[in-house]
Structure formats: C-alpha cells, structure tokens
Amino acid sequence: MLAYDDQGRLLLVQDKDSGLWGAPSGILDPYELPADAAVRETWEEAGVFVDLTHIIGVFAGEHFAGVYSNGDQLACVTTVFGARPLRGTPRRDHEETSDSRYFAPSEIDRLSCYPHFQVIRKVVSQCRSQVYFGPSTWQPSNT
After folding, report:
1. Which intervals hold domain Nudix hydrolase (predicted)?
2. Under CATH, to which class is 2-124 assigned?
3. Three-class secondary structure of residue 125 per DSSP
C-alpha cells in the first residue's frame, strides 16, 4: 500500500528486526478482503488510517517469495493499492516497526529498503497511468 500525503511524500515503515524500510504491508487474516488488510496493516504498523484510491498493481516473482523455518518455500501474490491518509500521525508500533514517517521521493533513494519495495517503486515510476501486472510467460507444451 502506497500512501502519499498532500505534499507528495510517501508513508514508509522501518522493520524492527532488519532495519529495512518499506511500505506498510502484511498477510490477510482468514476471510479478510485485501482492501481491508491494506487499511488495517497501515493502521497497525504506522498509526495512519487511509482511504484506498486505486490498485497500483499485482506483483509476484523472486522478490515476493520466501522460505519457512522448516525449509518449505512460499510464493506470494501481492496487490499494491494507492491510498491517501485520512487521519493519524505516523508512529512505530513497537512489535513490527521501529519507525514510521513520510519521505519525499528524493529522500527514499538514500534509505536501505526491502528489495520487493524497490521493484514496486521502479514499476510505479515507469507505469503511472495503468494497473501493472507482470506479463504471462507460460505456454503449453507442444506434445
């Protein structure tokens, strides 16, 4: 979820464990709608209540995957929403985030950010007028 304030600054949170910066995000609770999860996670992680305005894109791939502690691999499909803040002052949550604040675009380049966030930023800078999704590369076999 990318929330821009009225000055064009982007709301980011700093992960408590890694120290890396990224947009507020998280996993759906059972039966939760993606839009509700985006609003809830932003409130929980950053203390900002947002209004979702549009879908920026749907992302997957190597930067949106991980490995569980037992070795099982997982792949995520991530829906990124655009949003505007309605109320709340950025703050850390002490559980997942150690900091939360708005950054001007020029300031973000100096931050240590998650690789998946860098992918999203690159796409946003190149693809502002339409919803992004990666092209299909799958084809049926010729047998």
Report:
1. 1-126
2. alpha beta
3. helix
